[in-house]
Amino acid sequence: MHRNFGYTVEAPFPLPHTPLIRVTRRWFFYTELITFLLFLSHGVKAANSNNDEITKIGAIVDVHSHIGKEEITAMKIAVQNFNTNSRNHKLSLQIREHGSDPFRAAMAAEELIKEEKVKVIIGMETWEAAAVVADIASRAEVPVLSFAAPAITPPSVSLRWPFLIRMASNDSEEIKCIAALAQFYNWRRVVAIYEDNAFGGNSGKLALLSEALQESRSEVESRLVLPPISSVSDPKVFVQRELNKVQEKQSRVFIVIQASLPMTIHLFREAKKMGLMGQDSVWIVTDTVANSLDSLNTTVISSMEGTLGIKNYYSENGRYYREFSEQFRRNFPNEYPEEDHFQPGFHALRAYDSITIIAQTIGRLTSNINSPKMLLANILSSNFSGLSGQICFIDGEILNAEIVQIVNVVGKKYKELDFWSPKSAELSENTTRDVAEAGLGGAVIWPGNLTTRSPKGWAMPTKEKRMIIGVPGASIFDKFVKINSAGNSSNENKLQFDGFSIELFRKVVASLDYDLPYDFVQHDGDYDSLIYGVYNKSYDAAVGDLTILGSRTKHVEFTQPYMESGLSLIVAAKQEESTWMFLKPFTREMWAVTGATFIYTMFIVWLLEHQSNNPEFQGTLKNQIGTTIWFTFSTVFFAHREKIYSNLTRAVVVLWLFVVFVLTSSYTASLSSVLTVRRLETNTDIQDVKYHNWKVGCDHASFVQNYLENVLNFKKENIIPLQKKELNNIQNFENNRIDALFLEHPYARLFLDKYCKKFTTTNTFKFGSLGFAFQKGSPIALDVSRGILDLAENGMIEEREKHWFSPLPECSANERFNTRPENLTLHGIWGLYIVYGATSLICFLVFIIRLLNKFWSHPENYQGNITFGNEVARIAGYLHNGNQTNIINPAERAPEINLELARADETNSSTSTWEYVLSPHISENHLVSSPKIEM
């Protein structure tokens, strides 16, 4: 080197520098060449870039959550697919974080609009963030595709935010599905659980749930409101404390209407530890949780076993879904290796479809891409099948969310159960059903691995925590409820409970398809306080002779009635006395027809026997009338002695004797009843009782006292409340303490079974019946009601009623309320009269035909002047004399016949009678009667 350095000095240019100069030039040449090539490449690239139009899309998501990470990955895949396939248009995705804070979302929107000049903004998983971003974007005329929608869509949302496009529909459809489930499975009370934010944004979902449950006859019993998990230092302890409050409630139907995934994980883990995920419990999660089931790991899923989920429906069978799923499973673990679940969920599909909507819109807009209104209009006109479902907008809201899918978390995964839609009855690939009528299509695995029956959704009693049932100790009659202290059953507090009501309840419980451990407890207050004890949860139920009233149904749940009830007025019976008591057996019509038949029989018998030469019916007219009346009347007692000559008369008399036999037998029986049975008739009614200011008694422990005073308007001083023992005897009537007694119909029935000979009832006021009482919303009430109906249908209740309520021997069931014997009516023996009348009429006609035939058989005997009057006189005479008269030929007529005709005084003609007298000069063989007036 020293040699070179020296070489450099001798030369015009030092030698040592010569090699250095050469090296520098060479490297300079390479540098210039590389720079030129790079510049040329950059120029070509710049030229190509200048030819491509770039559209910036802003995305505001929660980049730290699993859902946000899925959305980012899906949007990047969609942008990459578009940029790869597009020649002259590119998409640029600008992602911002909102951190579940609406103010940060608003700041991010301001930055994206003003600085990044984005054409569209997508994202915002909460409605609070979407609302503030939509407000800013609408003023700047930038379309916004929101992943959230309000629980209740206001009518003015499109007017307030015209550039807002909701990729999610409101929650009304899934809430209706939950209400349908509650109605089918008879879940009357539920607990609503939701994680609220600082702005109270989930109150709309709670209002929807309450309204839908009311239409299904259910209600929200309590609410469990969880704060944002970011504001709680120890979520586990907080959730435990809140679940302890819920554990005191009877309802075991928990509906998680909104919660973040971290809070959901804590909620289900602690609920399972506390036993709230056991049998007869129900857990339902809405789409905010159910749509994330694909993103949960197996450990979290296992803590939710038996949960029902309501999620948005989408198909996994299409080619586009499979291609996207492959891309997602490749990209997601590369970008987020800390995550352990790589399957895309509904949120990822919706984010991908959002980019697809924008990409298709740009493809349709060959120009005017910078026009916000044209861009908005083309986005709203989108209509295609996306990965998350059908993409179609009406009034700025997507429509595909009206079809929901019901899933069941089983083991370490979930299975599809059914599909539900309020509008359509069938789907192209799957069938929907009315959940409220048909239930779920698949076999459900409920919490606690319950598969044999549906859960009650209620804190069911166990052997360790038995059901406490109050029994009234003030029952009027021990045939309904009987409590003795001689019992030795430890589970009934060393008391014996018996009676019709108690036995019926035991039989119903024995018929249930599940065990129902319970203890009877005597209640020493009145019936209203017992009902209130069920209402304030001192008792789980009340069993006994409880009257179902409208005022009581506001506080408790009654079963189906097992016995009808009402209010009866009991008064002392009065024996009926009457001078004409002997006429009571027959009705007036019966007496009239019987009398007419008697006279008719007299006439027929006289006519037939008189023409038959019966000497008993001959002689003077007075004698004939007397004989006929005596004969007919004596047949009533079968004491007649007159002989009968004519066979026609015998036929008439035989039938008449049968009629007499029936009449006398019926009359004797009815009169005996009238005279021997005490008449329990009364005309007393409630108006008479109030008018005469009678003292009325009633049960002091029942509602009757208030009913008499407030409804029937009795004076308070006239109402005498009676104790239990006083109602079982009649001393209050005998010592004139009360004049009447008001009892409920079942009690009045038992009272009259004992004192049927002294008292009677009138004026029954109908209202509620007897039943059992349970707490509001208790599913046991429905099961007991079904048991009561089953026992009633198979005759068991009627059989036990006969056993417990059999009357005294002298108080038969037919005489309990009405002992008056029925009068014999004409309708009962009308056929007998018809037969008798027809037979006697035929005999009469036969007689007339024979008689006229004999009369007209000798026309030669009636020669000369024949006038109408003479003709009638001759026929009348013939009818009177009959076979005693021989027709005389005028040629053989004796000249000595003397007919004497005496006319009565005109003043006494009305009272005269006609008698035919024979002249002593006429022989016996030639008798001709002639009329003579006898004064």
Describe the 3D structure:
Helix 20 crosses helix 21. The protein has 935 residues and is α/β, with parallel strands linked by helices. The strands form seven sheets. The protein has a seven-stranded mixed beta sheet with strand order 7-6-8-9-10-14-15, with helices on both faces. Keywords: Receptor. It comes from Melia azedarach.
Main beta sheet strand tally, sense and closure: 7 strands, mixed
pLDDT averaged residue by residue: 77
Q: Cα-atom Rg, whole angstroms?
A: 54 Å
Strand order of the largest sheet: 7-6-8-9-10-14-15
Low-confidence stretches: 1-25, 27-33, 35-50, 424-432, 862-866, 883-935
Structural class: alpha/beta
**Strand percentage:** 15-25%
Helix fraction, binned, reads 40-55%
- Please count the beta strands (DSSP E, at least 2 residues each): 29
Q: Figure out the total of helices.
A: 30
State the shape.
elongated
Span between N and C termini? 204 Å
Summary of the model, kept short:
The chain is of the alpha/beta class and 935 residues long. The strands form 7 sheets. The protein has a 7-stranded mixed sheet with strand order 7-6-8-9-10-14-15, sandwiched between helices. The chain has a 5-stranded parallel sheet with strand order 2-1-3-4-5, with helices on both faces. The protein has a 5-stranded mixed sheet with strand order 19-16-20-27-21, sandwiched between helices. β12 (389-394) and β13 form a beta hairpin.
